[in-house]
UniProtKB/TrEMBL annotation:
GO CC terms in record: periplasmic space
Cleaved signal peptide residues: 1-22
Keyword match Signal: yes
Protein name: sn-glycerol-3-phosphate-binding periplasmic protein UgpB
Length: 428
């Protein structure tokens, strides 16, 4: 009896030992992703993580849905300070200096610097790398990236006697179109606005959609200086303010970021500015023919880039950091970058993603998908500095003070610049 039991227990013990060894050999990486729980995006991320695990049986990915970008950044830094950081996270490209200053992340070159890794880093659009590299190091890898584009309702253009297939090419045209597209009832109340540029959520970002075409950048590449009070900046803000207060083709005051696409679907507005990340949302919900165009030019074309990058946290183990790089490479392979772009509306982050059979076919049937990509040649880095949250707040406050009529644009930008200079003094 003892012998029979012994013969059963030996293989069982061997199985248990090998299971324990396999468990010990598995590296778990925590992946913070900026979205509230639920919805199609979390299903897609869960699926991509599962696909990665299948290809890499020694690595377990644990996605954590951490709320907004802002909430995810706070949670990531708090976890870093308490000694239990995520291994990797998707955070705004503009969070790069903040994460460096907190000593929370490592450059990708410090984790893995093979010839293959170097080629991978070079495979992304240069416009996206402007917010991902500093001091000769790569701190972020582009994942869900965007530019601002103009959407217009072709039916409303036709009704107003405008060419439904032609977007306004410059600021003068946008104002002229908006005047024709704004409708009022007999009492003078507006029933349809010509244009909406949202000014809540990311006012500074939408503002860069005006300052960039006006031939000016808001900060230096080192993130230590801002230029909020330059004449071209003030001129851009004056144009934005005048759309509402002087020309009355846009609602006055602060326009909500979140409700702008809804206003477009409900035909309350004929033209809107928003992220290309809303493209799939517009495609699924607009019950009319719509167009997508690059932002109107002033002195030039141009938009800031936007969106999120992969970052690798410093306090993760070396094994976890290596696994995180492997995961980022997997998630940004051409086929996957193409699929992510098609599923979400974000710009596929590397040129070879656009050359895949799937993406080529998609663009053939839905040509506006390539507008944001084509705009990249004119794009600049999104506003990003050291102590970015406070610097950005100074600018946002100035923009909103002008749009609500509390301050004239020149005074608002002078105050914003003074505050930014004070904040950045110690980083010079």
């Amino acid at each position: 009896m003892r012998t029979a039991l012994g013969s059963i227990w030996k293989p069982l013990a061997a199985i248990a030992a090998s299971t324990a060894l396999a468990a010990a050999a598995q590296t778990e990486i925590t992946f913070y992703y900026p979205v509230a729980v639920g919805g199609p995006i979390t299903k897609t991320i869960d699926q991509m993580s599962a696909d990665f695990e299948k290809e890499n049986p020694g690595i377990k990915v644990k996605p954590v849905y951490a709320g907004t970008y802002q909430e995810t950044l706070v949670k990531g830094i708090t976890a870093h300070k308490s000694g239990t950081p995520p291994t990797t996270a998707i955070l705004l490209s503009t969070d790069m200096y903040t994460l460096i200053d907190e000593d929370a992340i490592v450059p990708f070159e410090d984790v893995s610097n093979t010839a293959d890794d170097k080629a991978w880093v070079k495979s992304f659009y240069p416009a996206f790398m402007a917010n991902s590299q500093t001091g000769g190091k790569t701190w972020g890898i582009p994942f869900q990236r965007s530019t601002i584009v103009l959407y217009w309702n072709k039916e409303l253009f036709k009704e107003a006697g405008l060419d439904p297939n032609k977007a306004p090419a410059n600021w003068k045209e946008m104002l002229e179109y908006a005047q024709k597209l704004t409708k009022r009832d007999p009492s003078g109340n507006v029933t349809q606005w010509g244009v909406q540029i949202p000014s809540s959520g990311f006012p500074y970002w939408l503002f860069q959609g005006l300052t960039t075409p006006n031939g000016v950048e808001l900060m230096n590449a080192a993130g230590t200086e801002t230029y909020f009070d330059k004449p071209e900046v003030v001129e851009a803000l004056q144009y934005w303010v005048d759309l509402g207060r002087k020309h009355k083709v846009m609602p006055t005051g602060v326009i909500e970021w979140g409700t702008t696409p809804k206003d477009f679907f409900e035909k309350k507005v004929a033209m809107i500015w928003t992220t290309t990340g809303n493209l799939t949302n517009v495609k699924n919900n607009a019950k009319f023919d719509f167009g997508v165009a690059m932002l109107p030019a002033s002195k030039r074309r141009g938009s800031p880039t936007g969106g999120g990058n992969f970052y690798v946290f410093k306090k993760a183990t070396k094994e976890q950091q290596s696994a995180a790089v492997k995961f980022a490479k997997f998630m940004t392979q051409p086929e996957r970058a193409a699929q992510w772009g098609m599923d979400t509306g974000y710009v596929a982050v590397r040129p070879d993603a656009w050359a895949t059979a799937k993406m080529t076919e998609y663009v053939k049937g839905f040509p506006v998908a390539s507008v944001a990509r084509d705009q990249l040649q004119f794009s600049v880095a999104e506003l990003s500095t050291h102590d970015n949250q406070r610097v950005t707040k100074a600018l946002n406050d100035g923009i909103q003070a002008s749009l609500t009529g509390a301050k004239e644009p020149a005074a608002a930008m002078k105050d914003a610049q003074a505050e930014a200079t004070r904040i950045l003094r110690s980083y010079k």
